[in-house]
Structure formats: C-alpha cells, structure tokens
C-alpha cells in the first residue's frame, strides 16, 4: 500500500503530539479534535482499511484496543467513559488510509453519530 501522513508521523518526518508508543502502536492527538480528548491509536505496521485486515492481524487490532483502554485508565477518564471509533472507506468517513482507532473523551458524546 502507499505511504500516508501517518507513516510520516511514525518516522518523525512530520510533528505530532505523541502520547503513547510501544513496539507495535503509536498514539497521538488528532490535529482537528472532535472532543476535549481526541487521540488516534495506529499500528506501526500499516494496513489501509478495516477491509484489508487478515486473520493474522487479530493480535494487532487487539493491541490497538488494549492500548487505548489502558491509556484511558492512566489518564483518569475511563470511569466517566469514552468512545472508540474506526472509520472505514468513504461512507465511514475515512480520510487517512492507514487504519486508526479514534479515542474520544472529555464530554458526553451523542448517539447516533452523524
Ligand atoms: P479518519 O477521517 O480517516 O477516520 O481520521 C483521520 C484523522 O486524522 C482525522 O480526525 C484528522 O483530523 C486527523 N489528521 C489528519 N491529518 C493529521 C495530521 O497531520 N496530524 C494529526 N495529528 N492528525 C491528523
């Protein structure tokens, strides 16, 4: 797949407000936050869309979710709650073709989303 701006963030070619990193996952604040807390959790090994995941990626996707939930607990908003979203393709609102989990928190979020 082609490189995206998230690849450039992983390689530190463009700046980002990085809040968490491990061997497989990088997390940084969204440049256009939709809530007081809006962080993107991405795999360092890029996959374009949810449609491109293979069975072997199960651990990778699990690591994204676990990294987000652990960070929410550490940051102290887990009990109040938060939302995790992964957008897929045009109708899902995906704009960057490197899968990412949005973590939104810090206000009551509406349902259904727009
Ligand atoms: P998507 O629409 O693909 O689900 O989410 C992509 C997200 O990436 C958007 O929320 C957008 O604000 C964020 N984004 C786009 N460009 C940049 C950037 O250069 N830096 C950061 N930190 N976030 C970005």
Secondary-structure arrangement, i.e. CATH architecture: 2-Layer Sandwich
Q: What's the SSE pattern?
A: HEEEHEHE
> Distance between termini?
30 Å
- What gyration radius follows from the Cα positions, in whole Å? 14 Å
> Which CATH top level class fits?
Alpha Beta
Number of strands: 5
* Strands in their spatial order, largest beta sheet: 1-2-3-5-4
How much of the polypeptide forms β-strand, as a percent range?
Answer: 15-25%
Helix content: 10-25%
Helix-strand makeup class: alpha+beta
Q: What's the number of structural domains?
A: 1
Instruction: Give the averaged pLDDT, no decimals.
Output: 97
Give a short account of the largest sheet: 5 strands, antiparallel
CATH-defined fold name: HIT family, subunit A
Task: Explain the overall architecture.
The structure is a single chain. The protein is an alpha+beta fold and 114 residues long. The protein has one domain (5-105): 2-Layer Sandwich (HIT family, subunit A), CATH 3.30.428.10. The protein has 3 helices and 5 strands. The protein has helices at residues 5-10, 58-75, 89-92, and strands at 18-21, 25-29, 37-43, 82-85, 101-105. A 5-stranded antiparallel sheet has the order 1-2-3-5-4, covered by helices on one side. The protein starts with a helix and ends in a 9-residue tail after the last strand. The model has no long low-confidence stretch (mean pLDDT 97). Guanosine-5'-monophosphate (5GP) is lined by residues 5, 16, 28, 30-32, 40, 87, 93-96. Guanosine-5'-monophosphate (5GP) binds next to loops.
